[in-house]
Amino acid sequence: MSQYFDIHPENPQKRLIKQAVEIIHQGGVIVYPTDSSYALGCHIGDKNAVTRLRRIRQIDDKHNLTLVCRDLSEIATYAKIDNSEYRLLKSLTPGPYTFILPGTSEVPRRLMHPKRRHIGLRVMNHPVVNDLLDELGQPLMTCTLVMPGEDFPVTDAEDIRTQLEKQVDLIIDGGHCGIEPTTVIRLTNGLPEIVRHGKGKDHGL
Questions:
Q1: Could you tell me where the DSSP H helices lie in the chain?
Q2: Nearest to 185 by CA among 115, 88, 105
Q3: What is the rounded CA–CA span in Å between residue 97 and residue 68?
Q4: CA 44 to each of CA 4, 66, 97, 107, 169: distance values in angstroms, whole numbers, following the listed order
Q5: 129 vs 193: CA distance, rounded Å
Q6: What distance in Å separates the CA atoms of residue 186 and residue 99, rounded to the nearest whole number?
Q7: Contact, 160 vs 144, CB < 8 A?
Q8: pTM of the complete model beyond 0.85
Q9: d(C-alpha 138, C-alpha 76), whole Å
């Protein structure tokens, strides 16, 4: 049975943030609010937790998972970025964008696309996420909480509790998040390519 934390979306309770991060460090899979929708998250280095996350979403290893980073410098640790790409990321972060980039050796190989060695990366604008990352001290492995067979993310934490309380270790209720996923921009072929239109504007890309 999962734990359920009601965390204020603008002024997160530090005590609950610390408890949430302890659950992540112990191998837990969590549901948490973001600047676009609810998402699943786990520790970057925990193989079993990542397997559970994929099982909940019913996705295989060809589905790009995403690392949620605190800032651009942390992205540069986990992805190969040239100067023009850095300028683009700087103009769009923090915000509702996911960038597909070649991963560095800091990213466990099992987290990247098996052939292309790409990884998704994000910098969010959400107080709960910011506090979780500050307490965690490293990126959070994540994917949008879209249940198998559905087209849109689950938006209500109580509905999430009904569906997933036996599959995840923690559900963070941060209020309504919305149902529009991020805009996904691939930066692996020399030019930016929008592969999914979402909440983020395309800025003429």
A1: 14-25, 47-57, 72-78, 83-92, 127-136, 157-164
A2: 88
A3: 11
A4: 22, 10, 20, 8, 16
A5: 27
A6: 6
A7: no
A8: yes
A9: 13
How far is residue 4's CA from residue 174's CA, in Å, rounded to a whole number? Answer: 11
Rounded CA separation 42/27 (Å):
7
Nearest to 47 by CA among 106, 2, 108, 117: 108
pLDDT per residue as tens digits for the range 151-190: 888 888 999 999 999 999 999 999 988 788 889 999 987 7
Residue 161 one-letter amino acid: R
Structural domains present in the chain = 3-196 (3.90.870.10)
Calculate the CA 168 to chain-centre distance: 16
AA identity, residue 138: Q
